[in-house]
Design a protein that fits this description.
about 20% helix, PmbA/TldD fold, five-stranded mixed barrel, 8 helices, about 425 residues, seven-stranded mixed beta sheet
Length: about 425
């Protein structure tokens, strides 16, 4: 169990130090994290342990210059030295009057999720998962299972008088595996979930069964011959990566400030098909890892980036909003929620004439023009509505910005993994290249 007394004492000490710095704006968060972890490697349970971690994150603004640091100690001499050091570091930063923190907001105390682990049930679920995979998926080799309970107690303050206290707990599961037929082995695959209870066997959560089945089917991939323009079905995990791409090249502070975003002047205009609505929703009940206040100190609020194809908002922080003279985003989280469509995944596949289902795309960081090219991973070839085989050595290329205008269908099914809620999305106009 975390010790709120020590957290409070560390916060009070930092507050006292900051009160002596009359011209400093600052915010900090003091946290203790207790992790109970069960680990299995190559079929053997090798670890059951509890880890205790301390974190102190400090953000200061001195003479309109920012400084940021993080340490893992509550010791007063360390806190004092760290604060002095981060203030000193601002001397080499560029001054900008747009740097700021939120004004005082009503502080709250939040409690969410299971604060104490059920170790016996956690262990039972871990053994159950391993035994079920061995029995029902004999052509899958599991290299690692990590199941955790994480409790975090934290106290946030800023020099404008805001104070938030948060107590939260959750379970998480990470699975690393590959298909193997006794001779050949597929590439490494991963599944991960964040959950609030242990009521459901892990094997039944999210896409885990589908991921395991696809690993078995991927042992002997077939390279595609030639080059063609076809359709791409993004799995939820793959589309999550694309959402992050939009944040980087079209919505974040840097590209809005320097006007390099292709969406810079598109607020209120159409950037996607009518059926596409994407939001960032920390308060969605399906989001387990939850943001309570933004990185600037505002109360986090859900907001919609694109609604029925219309661009509603950038993902700008307080600094970005001040600098670019745009509205600040409602939160600084990455808990994407895309609304489901009206097509089942089975029907989506049946409607593909020629294309791929893609689990991930291995590529470099796309440029702000949206052009993206990379190797399709965990991918399957679809022709005339039928999944034919896993593929290897296959490239895909498309424009990430324009592809939202080429969405063919969005699935009824969504994957809620605790961090985001996303459907399958089928798009047209993708260049697919084999050998």
């Amino acid at each position: 169990m975390s010790d709120m007394t020590k957290i409070q004492q560390a916060a009070d000490y930092l507050t006292g130090l900051l009160e002596e710095k009359k011209d400093i704006k600052a915010q900090f968060e003091v946290s203790e994290i207790v992790t109970t972890e069960v680990t299995s490697e190559n079929g053997d349970f090798t670890l059951l342990r509890t880890l205790f971690d301390k974190e102190v994150g400090i953000h200061v603004i001195a003479d309109h210059k920012p400084g940021l640091t993080k340490i893992n100690s509550f010791e007063e001499p360390v806190l004092k030295e760290t604060l002095e050091g981060v203030i000193a570091s601002t001397a080499s930063a560029g001054a900008d009057e747009c740097f700021d923190i939120a004004p005082k907001i009503e502080g709250k105390e939040f409690t969410r999720g299971p604060l104490e682990p059920d170790v016996d049930k956690l262990m039972t679920r871990a053994v159950e998962l391993q035994e079920t995979i061995a029995k029902e998926y004999p052509n899958v080799l599991v290299s690692m299972i990590i199941i955790e309970h994480v409790r975090k107690d934290s106290l946030y303050r800023n020099t404008n008088g805001t104070e938030d206290i948060v107590h939260e707990g959750h379970y998480s599961m990470f699975l690393e595996f590959a298909g193997n037929d006794g001779t050949n082995t597929s590439g490494i695959s991963f599944s991960a979930m964040t959950i609030e209870n242990l009521d459901t066997p892990f094997i039944e959560l999210g896409r885990i069964r589908k991921d395991l089945a696809e690993a078995e089917q991927s042992v002997n991939p077939v390279p595609i011959e030639g080059k063609f323009e076809g359709q791409l079905i993004f799995t939820p995990e793959c589309f999550r990566a694309l959402m992050y791409t939009y944040m980087e090249i079209a919505l974040s502070d840097d590209v809005i400030i320097d006007n390099s975003s292709l969406w810079r002047n598109k607020i209120g205009q159409k950037v996607a098909v009518d059926s596409f609505t994407a939001s960032i929703k920390p308060w969605d009940e399906r989001i387990i890892n939850h943001e309570y206040h933004t990185n600037d100190g505002f109360r986090s609020e859900d907001y919609t980036i694109i609604e029925n194809g219309i661009l509603n908002s950038f993902a700008t922080t307080l600094f970005g909003a001040n600098k670019a003279k745009v509205d600040r985003a409602g939160n600084t989280d990455l808990c994407y929620v895309v609304e489901p469509g009206d097509t089942s995944l089975d029907d989506m596949i049946k409607n593909v004439t020629k294309g791929l289902i893609v689990g991930s795309i291995s590529c470099g960081e796309p440029r702000t023009n949206g052009e993206l090219a990379g190797v399709a991973k965990n991918a399957f070839y679809v022709e005339n509505g039928e999944i034919k085989n896993a593929v290897s050595e296959t490239m895909v290329s498309f424009n990430a910005i324009k592809i939202l205008e080429n969405i063919v269908s969005i699935s009824k099914e969504v994957l809620a993994n605790g961090d985001w809620v996303l459907p399958y999305i089928c798009v047209d106009g993708v260049t697919i290249s084999g050998k």
